[in-house]
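Example (one chain per record):
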Amino acid sequence: MLKRSDINATQTPELKKELEISVDQVHVWVISGSKRQRHDPTILQLLSADEVTRARRFKSEDHAAQWAFFHACLREILGAYTGQAPEQLRFQLGAHDKPALQEPSPPPLYFNLSHSGELALLALTRRAPIGVDIELQRELNDRDALVARFFSDAEQAEFAQLPATIRTNCFYNCWTRKEALIKANGIGLSAPLEAFDVPLLELAGWHLPAVRPPLPAKTSYPLQPIDPGPGYVGAVALELPDTQCNKLPEVQVDNYQRGF
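Predicted structure:
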């Protein structure tokens, strides 16, 4: 598993130059600092009018400020890859309303953002549609009910055999891997989560889950766990034709602390 302790922290000045990413790479950014910086009014200057409106729809002022912070960081990082000013980036909605850049030159830059607690993960690649998920681990009163409702038969059987001491961690392993997969597919929670099996225990490197209809035939969803930091679990997944899974991209994880 790629861990945050293994990464090279990238500070804001390094993002002033254009960053490069090839079709053989996946870049994952661990975004932190929202609790300290999210109420800075300059954050809103990077967002579009629609994004500001969306942020203000949150009932909680803290949730609104945090959403704005993470999306400002998204713009800052995407701007470094595209050579555009963050506030000038334009987005469009693709299939199933998944956001994409309005970028004229191929290959496209696929990206996906997920946040939980005080951290976010942003995954990018030029290889294929990508999904990412992060979860802050906490005890859930309805954990077993969620397992029965959303885990596949194979996942439920594996979960039932686990020692009680690791069940919470393995629950989040499974949940983030399933979320990353359906976000790579683009359908989101409308996809039946029991239509594929992901492992619950620790993984090293890419894993190809078993998938079934209604997920598309001859399509694979390689996934890899990400360790964002203590108390968090993450995963990244791609959507690829079966014939393109013989050589999967290298995953690079970096730390991003934006000083607005």
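Caption: Confidence is low (pLDDT under 50) at residues 2-14.
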